């Protein structure tokens, strides 16, 4: 199978039952994405597939052949992705276990807002301009859990990075 991960092509022979998360961690050594619950409930394994966020623990690797996959390792290098820097500046992590999933999810969430996709709490569905306020941000990030409770720093970091941008 051929995979495009973080801009690099990988040709691998893996069992068809291998999850995308296990492919990343066990076969490619990309351990940023975490295996938290392995049931799609915590979001620690969130990666981007062609810009959309998915839970890699629920995805079979075979489904994502030849598609552009970005893990937290592919978000930034030198310099850091602006969101990574904001997490540092706002202490958006404690143990850091959820951080890779939070980062990938927030990057995709910002793109969803730019495209005008509503959430459950979007107040005005007819508006061309979507505001990423506190409630909207928390709702959109609700699939990513933090056992340490660093939500205030996470929300502040995301707000600083994306709330200023026009939707």
From TrEMBL:
Annotated source species: Sphingomonas vulcanisoli
Record-linked CDD domains: fer2
Segments crossing the lipid bilayer: none
Protein name: Xanthine dehydrogenase YagT iron-sulfur-binding subunit
Record key words, sorted: Iron, Metal-binding, Oxidoreductase
Phylogenetic lineage: Bacteria, Pseudomonadati, Pseudomonadota, Alphaproteobacteria, Sphingomonadales
Xref: PROSITE patterns: 2FE2S_FER_1, 2FE2S_FER_2
Keyword Nucleotide-binding: no
2Fe-2S ferredoxin-type domain sequence ranges: 1-75
Pfam families: Fer2, Fer2_2
């Amino acid at each position: 199978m051929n995979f495009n991960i973080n801009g690099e092509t990988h040709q691998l022979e893996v069992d068809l039952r291998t999850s995308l998360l296990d492919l990343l961690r066990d076969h490619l050594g990309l351990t940023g994405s975490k295996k938290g619950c392995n049931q799609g409930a915590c979001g620690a394994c969130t990666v981007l597939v062609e810009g959309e966020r998915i839970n890699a623990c629920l995805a079979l690797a075979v489904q994502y052949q030849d598609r552009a996959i970005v893990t937290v390792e592919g978000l930034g290098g030198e310099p850091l992705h602006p969101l990574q820097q904001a997490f540092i500046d706002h202490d958006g992590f404690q143990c850091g276990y959820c951080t890779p999933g939070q980062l990938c999810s927030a990057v995709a969430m910002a793109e969803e807002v730019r495209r005008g996709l509503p959430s459950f709490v979007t107040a005005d569905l007819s508006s061309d301009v979507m505001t990423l306020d506190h409630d909207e941000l928390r709702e959109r990030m609700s699939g990513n859990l933090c056992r340490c409770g660093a939500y205030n720093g996470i929300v502040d970091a995301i707000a600083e990075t994306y709330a200023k941008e026009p939707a």
